[in-house]
Write a structure and sequence with these properties.
The chain has 13 helices and 14 strands. By secondary structure, it is α/β, with parallel strands linked by helices. It has 2 domains: 127 residues, Enolase-like, domain 1; 234 residues, TIM Barrel, CATH 3.20.20.120. The strands form 3 sheets. The chain has a 9-stranded mixed sheet with strand order 3-2-7-8-9-10-11-12-13, covered by helices on one side. α3 packs antiparallel against α4 and α6 crosses α7. InterPro entries: DgoD-like (IPR034593), Enolase-like_C_sf (IPR036849), Enolase-like_N (IPR029017), Enolase_C-like (IPR029065), Mandelate_racemase_C (IPR013342), Mandelate_racemase_N_dom (IPR013341). GO terms for molecular function: glucarate dehydratase activity; metal ion binding. Its EC number is 4.2.1.40.
Length: 406
């Protein structure tokens, strides 16, 4: 079997409301690039990639000469064709490779009539549990609804998500307001949901000293872990030495060299694996195996997925035995999806692992065209800017917080 074509289409998916984070915002819409990898046997595999509000179509077009004629079953050869570590010093293609690997695994499963989890060693669980992903949100531009700014709004939003989807773990994405205010928000969540687990992630916006102060203030709560309070392995190592909560990251351990450095001199207790950031599902499984050997925890990170990437997260979660934490997902913030039948369903805070051939999902090409037209109409946006603060830009560590009073 040979690859005969690769096509990339950028889509824009509306969110319930703009999602704020320490580095800017998702401006009420996700921009994702959907790829179709076609073979000489007529089998088409699908992949997906983000891009911080921007299209990746041109980058995928640049891969065409590498991919035409390639056998989609030759995944290690594919990795070195696209991500040779020396060549990647000049053109880092890790996330592009991930999307192509998704599509190749989809093709392989469809060819063999097997779900991807069977190609990856077989599943050890039938469903993957998820955490609610709580963001501070700006009001929806059209309806004026959906704002999350006050403590009351945050608790009400979490209550709604728990009632609708059954979440038992709640993650607060912080780094937007002053740490003292976000500490009050976090404590309010703990008080409102005393039997549920919590995690806090300010996207490395805090200084080491503020991270220690915040972490010590929440030590007695029902925490999963303390995710990326500050930047860098050494900063996280200093926090870890002073706070009795497991540390976690999706920013400073995202490749095997960083993982090795962390094992030799520990700074991170829980590594959040991302099927895009690490370069594919198989890379994540390799990393999970290293973590299992050295008894580091793992979780699954969300980089703003639609249904294709969500399927890769589910297959990953199905096959790694040491996944002891609920996964993250932005998915419940979406208004729609590009899958036939619409969005996948949460049941008691979990989503079932797809059992159909390949990724086990069916892409609705009419939806792809619909949301591709939306992208053409509105264009991209700068992920690292906040539309409510046009002159602001992020510092690390930050000291210019948004005003929670307005």
């Amino acid at each position: 079997m040979k690859i005969t074509d690769i096509r990339a289409t950028t889509v824009m998916m509306p969110l319930e409301a703009p999602l704020r984070h320490s580095n800017g915002a998702h401006w009420g819409k996700f921009v994702r690039t959907i790829i179709e990898v076609e073979t000489d046997e007529g089998i088409i595999g699908y992949g997906e990639m983000g891009g911080g509000g921007e299209s990746a179509e041109a980058a995928f077009a640049g891969l065409k000469s590498y991919l035409l004629g390639h056998d989609p079953f030759q995944l290690e050869e594919l990795r070195f064709k696209i991500c040779n570590p020396t060549a990647s010093l000049y053109n880092n293609r890790t996330q592009l490779h991930a999307a192509v690997e998704f599509a190749c695994l989809d093709i392989m499963g469809k060819k063999l009539g097997l779900p991807v989890h069977q190609l990856l060693g077989g599943k050890v669980r039938d469903e993957v549990k998820f955490a609610s992903y709580l963001f501070y949100r700006l009001p929806n531009e059209q309806t004026g609804e959906g704002e999350v700014r006050t403590i009351e709004q945050l608790v009400a939003h979490c209550t709604e998500l728990k009632e609708k989807h059954g979440f038992h773990v709640h993650k607060l994405k912080g780094g937007v307001f002053h740490p003292d205010y976000e500490l009050a928000c976090y404590k309010a969540l703990a008080e409102a949901f005393p039997e549920d687990r919590l995690r806090y992630d300010p996207n490395a916006a805090l200084s080491v000293e503020d991270s220690i102060r915040f972490g010590q203030a929440i030590e007695g709560l029902n925490n999963d872990y303390f995710e990326d309070p500050t930047w860098g392995l050494n900063g996280m190592r200093r926090v870890r030495s002073m706070v009795r909560i497991p540390t976690a990251t999706n920013t400073v351990v995202v490749n095997f060299e960083q993982l090795a450095a962390n094992i030799l001199d520990p700074a991170i207790d829980v590594v959040l694996l991302d099927t895009t950031f690490w370069g594919g599902i198989r890379q994540c499984i390799k990393a999970a195996g290293v973590c299992e050997t050295f008894q580091l925890g793992i979780a699954v990170h969300s980089s703003g997925e639609l249904g294709i990437q969500l399927a890769t997260m589910l297959h990953l979660g199905a096959v790694v035995p040491n996944l002891a934490f609920a996964a993250d997902a932005h998915y419940h913030h979406l208004q729609d999806d590009i899958l036939v039948g619409g969005k996948m369903k949460y049941v008691n805070g979990a989503i079932s692992v797809p059992e159909g051939p390949g990724l086990g999902i069916e892409v609705n090409l009419d939806k792809v065209r619909e949301y591709a037209e939306m992208y053409k109409e509105f264009g991209g946006y700068p992920y690292d800017r906040d539309p409510s603060r046009p002159d602001w830009f992020p510092l690390v560590p930050n000291d210019r917080w948004a005003d929670h009073r307005r």
